[in-house]
């Protein structure tokens, strides 16, 4: 695990779990103690590699096979199961003692997080989700930021990385989420995408769609495509954000994966409700609300509503009002929690001109550099300003240049000296 060999770590943990389950415990003797401690460590390894279902299963085994209720490993198992419950959004898994601690507001002293303490990082992950669930998005961001900064290898702690990304997006920090995803994917284990990589790339798809960055959206989409269920869910969100509810509906219609935990089911039904409401499919939107409301009422999983764009938000509000979903009306924000930047694509010539504008070139200098007439440059500049929705070259450079993440296409580059009138 320390070497970030995710696949090897999971394989060995599964072999160890099989050996543990094969052991018969009748009393808490030395052998039982050794097996119990091993089971706790195996559960921890599963959790840190984003295999929360297997972690929960291992901790459940510890609880069922610990005879003496005073043993520390029983408390560890209770805490481990509770942390998984908060991460996946299933509060029936959370013990009352753990809930009382996890639900406490962030204390200043908690900003000093012990480095390399996996148990603390697990609890910080759970506390981040708990803060998100009660609508304390700024508190969730502070908690997850502290935990990530204290983690030498954050790519290993998959659930923490995902909680941090959610906190960033819910706080409107889309560019920070994209930067973090890039950093995490650069730390992928040598054996491939691992367990967390595909989910982080899906977050990258989401953040790219919000930022209106079509090039990065396509890049992340390629990374997630080998994982069909995850790709369809992320594609549905991206299509919703980019104003194509019908594409989102088609993606959700093909989605049939059973994601572990109510939190991701709440995301599915939030998207389902939003895109059908936007498309004018009242009966389908009402069906979505009927599935979503119990998840919000019982598990407090309404935070995904904050990521609905304004047109979908208004449509859901109308459906909820007409269908007597007063509970949903109380939860819906007046304004969308995300600011969506329209996706803008550029031709090769527009990319060339935009790069030179970013370097401070005048129209005459651009014309000389690209061997085209000043009038052609003027035409393209005006088109760029209109497409980007700005009024000055400086604004165009600030907004447009960061989106130029690919080099000019070779097949469309003109040879030097060839005019373009």
TrEMBL record:
The keyword Cytoplasm does not apply. GO terms for biological process: regulation of DNA-templated transcription. It comes from Microbacterium mitrae. Residues 407-421 have a biased composition (Basic and acidic residues). The keyword Membrane does not apply. CDD domains: LuxR_C_like. This is Response regulator transcription factor. Residues 396-421 are annotated as: Disordered. Residues 339-404 form the HTH luxR-type domain. Keywords: DNA-binding, Transcription, Transcription regulation. It comes from the Bacteria. Transmembrane segments: none annotated. GO terms for molecular function: DNA binding. Signal peptide: none annotated. InterPro entries: Sig_transdc_resp-reg_C-effctor, Tscrpt_reg_LuxR_C, WH-like_DNA-bd_sf. Pfam families: GerE (PF00196).
